[in-house]
Model the fold of this input.
Amino acid sequence: MRYSQSWQDYELLDSSDGERLERWGSTILIRPDPQVIWKTPKAHPLWKKADARYHRSSKGGGNWEVYRNYPEEWTIGYRDLTFKIKPMGFKHTGLFPEQAVNWDYLRDVIRSSGGQDVKVLNLFAYTGGATVAALAENASVVHVDASKGMVNYAKDNARLSGLADRHVRWLVDDCTKFVQREIRRGNHYDIIIMDPPSYGRGPGGEVWKLEDKIYELVELCSGVLSDDPLMMLINSYTTGLSPSVMHYILGSLVAPKFGGTVTSDEIGLPTTQTGLCLPCGASAIWRKE
Done:
């Protein structure tokens, strides 16, 4: 399992009985997590001193129960980056801290590329963690997400990180349709990052599952890789889509054409109370040798 050891402003303090106890800066939140099936003692003292707890509803969604006053939004830092944190619906805070290990990997690939003008396509880009990481290394980025609100949130993160003047295009668009148009336009990218949702809707409104569509999606996106690409990363929070499956897809679609190597693994968060690591998703990475 891969995880970052560089967080200072975020900390997974403990996890038990379907919940995480987390520190976001100086704010303590309790959030549900279906991966936490163990029922270890909630011995950490901050379980009883949290600022807020998110409760899921049996009807979908849920609500925040506030125990102590805390800001509506605030910022935390990761290395030289700054991110806005804002508790929202569906337990979200605007950031997936486990993705920091992928941001570091991305930055390393860009830095080691020999100084070429690296073009990055970030699909299903959410609030732009990977986007600002790439911008910090002076790559040019096309950031695509279907939600206008999330794209605006990502712009805030770029501004907070002092990167608003870097070469980036912010696009509110359907990712699949955008890639199809890029193929017709003949545009190409050196790095493609994607974090598609577990469920989505097709052009006709039909519901689709990621595990049923991931091969087609990767096949499509491989059509906008440059002649000498650097990396393609797939991240997934879909429980039915293992790292090995994504590894096989990249190994069958990208590696035969461009060479290089494919790696895959779970990503996670180290837990202060137990010293163990909470699994938080999976990534597969094709990288040029």
User: Anything to note?
Assistant: The domain at 97-287 is CATH 3.40.50.150 (Rossmann fold).
